[in-house]
């Protein structure tokens, strides 16, 4: 019930190309029980912004009225990564020594936002629910095309899809930077559907304090 909302939400996007990219933003009016109404959209061209500087942007909404106020900062980061299971950094002795030094008691107040990091190995799933039925006769069979989404706060990383398999193996390592020890790691499995949104197959939530 407002035309001047304040969200104060922070989102971390990870760029894998030096030249930046385009961020698309859409604004919607939430309607309970029916389809949400489109209010407007805007774009942020990251290639026009200088690095290591916070930019305050006031961007008019296209196809609508009003504008969005954003704070955008481009900064170097190697905190969030995806790799194959055979390349675990924690098993490298030199890497392990660097990590222990980085989070030693002597460095406790060096960077207050760098609480630590979390490495998650997504190995496999077993006995998943079948979301798709293929065929219309006696030879019909049930399957899923599962992929896994790993989320920590606003960091969201995905595995590849394993097609036609209820016992998929992904063997991926996800590394996250931890900014708040009270965060909750969420791991969700979906069935990929090319013609529509993905089907939910299951989820687990792991508070970091329980690890």
Could you please describe the fold and organization of this structure?
The chain has about 210 residues and is mainly β. It has 2 domains: about 1-75, no CATH class; about 80-210, C2 domain (Immunoglobulin-like, Sandwich), CATH 2.60.40. Helices cover about 5% and strands about 40% of the residues. The protein contains 1 helix and 13 strands. Strand 7 (about 130-135) and strand 8 form a beta hairpin.
Which oligomeric state applies?
single chain
CATH uppermost class of the largest domain: Mainly Beta
Strand content: 35-45%
Tally the structural domains: 2
Number of helices: 1
Quick tags:
Immunoglobulin-like; 1 helix; 5% helix; 211 residues; 3-stranded antiparallel beta sheet; mainly beta; 4-stranded antiparallel beta sheet
Please outline what is shown here.
The chain is mainly β and 211 residues long.
Layout of helices and strands, plus pairs?
Blueprint: E1 22-29, E2 37-45, E3 54-60, E4 67-73, E5 81-84, H1 93-102, E6 116-124, E7 132-134, E8 141-143, E9 146-152, E10 155-158, E11 169-178, E12 184-191, E13 199-207
Antiparallel strand pairs: 1-2, 3-4, 5-11, 6-11, 7-8, 9-10, 9-12, 12-13
Membrane topology: Multi-pass membrane protein
Protein name: MCTP1 protein
InterPro entries: C2_dom, C2_domain_sf
């Amino acid at each position: 019930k407002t035309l001047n909302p304040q969200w104060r939400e922070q989102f971390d996007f990870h760029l894998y190309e030096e030249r930046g990219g385009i961020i698309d933003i859409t604004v919607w009016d939430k309607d309970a029980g029916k389809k949400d109404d489109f209010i407007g959209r805007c774009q942020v061209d990251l290639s026009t912004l200088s690095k290591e500087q916070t930019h305050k942007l006031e961007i008019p909404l296209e196809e609508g009225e009003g504008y969005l106020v954003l704070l955008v900062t481009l900064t170097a980061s190697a905190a969030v990564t995806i790799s194959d299971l055979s390349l675990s950094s924690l098993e490298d002795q030199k890497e392990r020594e660097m990590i222990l030094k980085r989070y030693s008691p002597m460095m406790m107040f060096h960077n207050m936002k760098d609480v630590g990091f979390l490495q998650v190995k997504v190995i496999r799933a077993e006995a998943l629910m079948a979301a798709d039925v293929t065929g219309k006769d006696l030879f019909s069979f049930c399957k899923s095309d599962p992929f896994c989404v790993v989320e920590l706060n606003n960091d969201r990383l995905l595995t590849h899809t394993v097609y036609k398999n209820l016992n998929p193996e992904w063997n991926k390592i996800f590394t996250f930077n931890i900014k708040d020890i009270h965060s909750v790691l969420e791991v969700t499995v979906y069935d990929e559907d090319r013609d529509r949104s993905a089907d939910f197959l299951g989820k687990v939530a792991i508070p970091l304090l329980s690890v």
